[in-house]
Amino acid sequence: MTDYETVLKGKYPAKAHAKRVTDYIRSKIPDAKGVLYLEGTHTKMQEDSDHPEPFRQRRYFYYLTGCPLADSHFIYDLASGTSTLFIPPVDPEEVIWSGMPVTAADAKELYDADRVLYTTDVNAELARLGKGAGTTAFAILHQVLDAISFIEFEDKDFDLLKRAIEECRVVKDDYEVALTKKANAISTTAHHAVMQMVKKAKNEQELEAVFLERSVAHGAKNQAYHSIHAAGRAAATLHYVHNNAPLEGKLNLLLDGGAEWNCYASDITRTFPISGKFSKESRAIYDIVLKMQLECIKVLKEGVNWDDVHLLAHKIAIEGLLALGIFKGGDADEILKARTSVAFFPHGLGHYLGMDTHDVGGNPNYADPDPMFRYLRKRGPLAAGSIVTVEPGIYFCNFIIEPYLSDPVHSRYIDADVLDKYWDVGGVRIEDNLLITANGSENLTPTIKDPDELEQLISSN
Predict the structure, then answer these.
(1) Enclosing domain of residue 323
(2) Among 141, 169, 197, where does a domain finish?
(3) 71, exposed or middle or buried, with CB in 10 Å at 0-12, 13-18, 19+?
(4) Contact partners, residue 444, CB within 8 Å, separation at least 6
(5) What pTM did the predictor assign?
(6) Residues of the chain with confidence (pLDDT) below 50
């Protein structure tokens, strides 16, 4: 049994999370009294239909409960440190169609809560806990039903709780790391299955089907995001969504896909040759991107400024593109200063990962006037215990690059004739999920990425 499977035999540590969030709130309001109040996602019917919309549990609620059930509520009493989960009562008519739901007794065994009651008791419990001087109901704006009453509380705060949970979610505990490892293991199985199928497939959608089938077969019924299966020049589109184009005549497949395990995401990208053998140009670009990733991973540790790691990736990209002759007419420092490399590497190096693929707490600045950092989803120092993706890429996107070719500031550094040899490469991205530690990092992604191993796996099938 793997180490993460042993950890996952226990309960999701919801009470420990509630304690962390409480500590954060009291760091801002030392004498805070009252309750933390959260609601899970409520069932919503599809328009003009008697079927519900696809369900996705609210991440703020899950962080303090570990409960995946719809229409649930949560109260944490700051004075006693008591957590109470409220789940929907048994509806006899619904049992006819869907079978017995989770009962309060079941939920007490499944989830890390001191008490489990039914949702019919929520307002009575709020009224009881709201009595007394100085009590505050901490909740999240627009995530409270109209039927819920905070009338007994002296004050209501709809700002601090969300901020507190977001800050606490940055640093993962052992259980959260285990969930992420499990998601990575399943996603790796799916990635490898696509690699083994790619030579036989005729269309991107066949490969998407393989990825989904392997994920579901291993118990991961939800994807962390809509996977990308981009063949040929489509790989130059960062978040390609169609996944329905033929593979014939195309060099590479960029597969960006990650299954979710109990609300925790994986986010993995691999680029590999459809034929089983990289073209000369594809291998040259792949080697640059792999060097970008490996060198960036080497410098990761607690306190490292993510902006500096992103800058390092650009420097390595510039060196590589100069060596290939795509860049010309200046030295690496000049090209870096001009920001010409943004034409080929337009996105950020990575982002925090957790219950959301682009997880909270990264403090991005999308108004940054510097195009090199504008789309960096994480800014500033890395925290020990955080999980970050490292996903450098080099892309040959006409829409992005052609304006640079028309701009004398940038065109003097780009050899258009050499560039013409690389359009069919499309794009290369390599992405792993890294747990930051005090002195380095732990790679949670076991998916193969050595180019020779990729070719061997694809060709052997």
Answers:
(1) 174-459
(2) 169
(3) middle
(4) 177, 180, 181, 184, 266, 387, 432, 433, 434, 435
(5) 0.97
(6) none
Helices and strands, number each (H, E), in the chain: 16, 16
Number of domains making up the chain? 2
Same-domain pairing of 162 and 193: no
- How many alpha carbons fall within 13 Å on the CB side of residue 307? 12
Q: Are residues 195 and 51 in the same domain?
A: no
What integer pLDDT is reported at residue 1 of this predicted model?
Answer: 56
**pLDDT tens, 133-151?**
999 999 999 999 999 999 9
Judgement on whether residues 381 and 232 belong to the same structural domain of the protein? yes
Instruction: Note whether 146 and 181 are same-domain residues.
Output: no
pLDDT, tens digit, 9 for 90 and up, residues 96-140: 999 999 999 999 999 999 999 999 999 999 999 999 999 999 999
Q: What angle do CA 265, 40, 262 make, to 5 degrees?
A: 25
Measured N-to-C along each axis, helices 280-298 and 451-459 cross at an angle, to the nearest 10 degrees, of 130
CATH number, domain of 48, equals: 3.40.350.10
Alpha-carbon distance 438 to 303, whole Å?
Answer: 8
User: What CATH number is attached to the domain comprising 318?
Assistant: 3.90.230.10
pLDDT score for 390: 99
Asked if residue 404 and residue 260 are part of one domain, the reply reads: yes
Residues 6+ apart with CB under 8 A from 178: 3, 4, 5, 7, 8
Domain boundary among 169, 196, 211: 169
328-339: pLDDT as tens digits: 999 999 999 999
Task: Return the amino acid letter for 392.
Answer: P
